[in-house]
Design a protein that fits this description.
Layout (H helix, E strand, L loop, with lengths): L15 H13 L5 E8 L9 E2 L3 H10 L4 H9 L7 H7 L6 E5 L4 E2 L6 E6 H5 L2 H24 L4 E4 L7 H14 L3 E2 L2 H7 L9 H6 L3 H12 L4 E3 L5 H12 L5 E4 L4 H14 L6 E4 L5 H9 L6 E4 L1 H4 L9 E8 L10 E2 L15 E6 L5 E7 L13 E6 L2 E2 L5 H13 L18 E4 L8
Parallel strand pairs: 6-7, 6-11, 8-9, 9-10, 10-11, 15-18
Antiparallel strand pairs: 1-5, 1-12, 2-4, 3-5, 3-16, 12-13, 14-15, 16-17
Helix pairs in contact: 2-6, 6-7, 6-13, 7-15, 10-11, 11-12
Length: about 450
């Protein structure tokens, strides 16, 4: 499980109003009422057929590390955020002791899927809202964008090169989320160390320009990295760059990268030139502000491209930098000590409706083995053996009970997407969302 870079004041990675609610709850007497909160997205981003879960490892670590040390509490008092007394006593003792259940990394989600369920006292659960949403909204957005590129890329190698386009900590999380979504390698070395994701990288234009000639640069790279590395050939002229690279490295050259210009035309000319120079095994890597739409266009045109390097679009969610997750109270006890027979609660606000009651969920398959529906229920159900139950226990009574491996998450994502019909895949899915949400035991005038 990955380390989350939180210092002794980790609990300050939250919003002011969370502590306002805790202080008010202590005063009103509801702080210790058993409660259930759920994380879900009311809708998918426009044009998206599914979402991909990522970040549960960071969720677990953040909950474990959520503490208010003495210096933090003193800062909050001096800043007039809280008053000394019951609130400072509560913060000093804070340790999450409840239960957390969630969709595993790599799982798909749809509108209203209960991606995370947090149970415990009202106060201990409500204070976690901001940090949990900041993790899941970021990581799920990146994983979803990565999966869409994977859908479009037709099995080509995918390289995450987005570290320079986002915050340093976000870059590490993005690399993990992208790997779950289908990317093969990352440029980020910390992601490689922390999560075991394969890393790669050769040279940039600065390296070429720092040498007297392009051939001098290629010769230096050959000496350092060998013939199998990737040689950047578009600094001056793509075709001459390829000729220079093959002349220096030889026909065993591993790959060339094109980072600008007409990627379709240049890749076709590059393939013909490489074959003519006796380097038919040399791979062609392209970059230059790619996203799932451009990759889909290149694949549809049968561009002779072997690998895509995606950066900015990937780490910004390809136009949707958040998964639009919300954290909502769905059930609460009417008395301290009550843990069953909870009262279901939900908002009726137009466009922001929430459905009360703790949700159980399973996903059904049709006769052809494709996902048929995501079934949400507030009632106990008999579930057929072929159905998927995506919720897993993550924390029980404050203790971590899950181990979330990135490679298993990646395999899970591949398996789940393989059960989506073709019309729900690709850059422009015909079916959005891919499957409907079916409600059981919930009276609705219309779909929420």
């Amino acid at each position: 499980m990955g380390f989350v870079n939180l210092d002794g004041a980790s609990a300050l990675r939250t919003d002011h109003y969370e502590l306002t609610m805790v202080a008010s709850a202590l005063g009103s007497g509801i702080a210790d009422r058993y409660s259930v909160f759920e994380v879900f997205a009311r809708r998918l981003p426009d044009g998206r057929a599914y979402g991909v879960v990522a970040g549960m490892n960071r969720v677990i670590d953040a909950i474990e590390r959520f503490r208010f040390d003495a210096a933090t509490i003193e800062h909050l008092v001096e800043s007039d955020v809280i008053e000394r007394g019951p609130m400072t006593d509560w913060l000093a003792k804070y340790r999450f002791g409840g239960d957390v259940t969630g969709y595993a990394d790599g799982e798909l989600f749809f509108p209203y899927s209960p991606v995370l369920t947090v149970e415990g006292t009202f106060a201990e659960c409500v204070v976690l809202e901001t940090v949990l949403l900041s993790i899941l909204n970021h990581d799920c957005a990146i994983a979803g964008a990565a999966a869409r590129v994977t859908d479009a890329a037709g099995g080509r190698t995918l390289i995450d090169g987005g570290s320079r386009r986002t915050d340093p900590d976000a870059a590490v999380a993005s690399a993990r989320a992208a790997h779950i979504g289908g990317f093969d390698t990352t440029s980020n070395l910390e992601a490689g160390r922390r999560y075991g994701i394969p890393t790669g990288g050769t040279t940039a234009h600065a390296f070429i320009l720092a040498h007297a000639t392009e051939t001098d640069a290629f010769a230096a790279q050959l000496e350092a990295l060998g013939a199998s590395s990737t040689y950047l050939v578009d600094t001056f002229d793509v075709e001459q760059g390829i000729r220079n690279a093959v002349a220096v490295v030889g026909p065993g050259i591993g790959a060339v990268r094109i980072d600008s210009g007409d990627l379709l035309g240049d890749s076709r000319r590059a393939r013909a030139l490489l074959d003519g120079l006796g380097a038919p095994e040399c791979r062609i890597v392209v970059s230059s502000d790619l996203d799932e739409f451009r990759v889909a266009e290149l694949e549809a045109a049968q561009a002779p491209i072997d690998a895509y390097l995606v950066g900015t679009s990937l780490v910004t969610g390809s136009g949707h930098p958040t998964a639009s997750m919300v954290y909502k109270l769905v059930s609460i006890a009417d008395a301290d000590g009550q843990t069953s027979g909870l009262r279901a609660v939900g908002k009726l606000s137009p466009g922001k409706r929430t459905i009360g009651g703790r949700k159980e969920v399973h996903r059904t398959l049709d006769a052809d083995g494709y996902w048929d529906a995501e079934v949400l229920s507030v009632l106990p159900l008999d579930i057929v053996e072929t159905a998927l139950q995506p919720q897993q226990p993550l924390i029980r009574s404050g203790a971590v009970v899950a181990s979330l491996d990135v490679e298993h998450a990646r395999e899970r994502c591949i398996d789940r997407r393989a059960r989506l019909r073709a019309e729900a895949l690709g850059a422009h899915p015909v079916t959005t969302p891919a499957i409907p949400t079916t409600w059981i035991g919930i009276e609705l005038d219309k779909e929420p």
